[in-house]
Amino acid sequence: MNLQELSAKPKLIKITIDDESIVEKYGEAVEFWMHDRHSMDTFMQMANVKENNLASIASLVRDIVLNEKGDKILADGETLPSDILMKVITKVVDSLGNSNSQTTKK
């Protein structure tokens, strides 16, 4: 297979947080979008985050978490509730580690 066949522009994918505790607290599942693939810079930033440095992870998530139009959700000075932020971080990390959505033909 030619490597060029695997290259593509990132596409938006919807991520849903539907944990029982989140649905119970907020009344419904919470959704956000992110790209299905990211640059090597993004992966390296994530890899270089120290294990307990949530501030660095939260900063990186700020750039990755988007709305359905592909715009960043959080403006300067805005933040998410801590319970949602932790779930978003988990979903982003899980998605970054999942190469299936990028290379599997449907």
Q: Which helices and strands appear, and what pairs or packs with what?
A:
Layout: E1 12-17, H1 20-26, E2 30-35, H2 40-47, H3 54-64, H4 82-96, H5 100-103
Antiparallel strand pairs: 1-2
List key phrases describing it.
globular; alpha+beta; disordered C terminus; two-stranded antiparallel ribbon; 106 residues; 5 helices
Compact overview of the structure:
This protein is α+β, with helices and mostly antiparallel strands.
Describe the structure.
By secondary structure, this protein is an alpha+beta fold. The chain has one domain. 42% of the residues lie in helices and 11% in strands. Strands 1-2 form a two-stranded antiparallel sheet. Helix 3 (54-64) packs across helix 4.
**Contiguous uncertain segments of 5+ residues:** 102-106
Radius of gyration: 15 Å
What is the count of structural domains?
1
Run of helices and strands: EHEHHHH
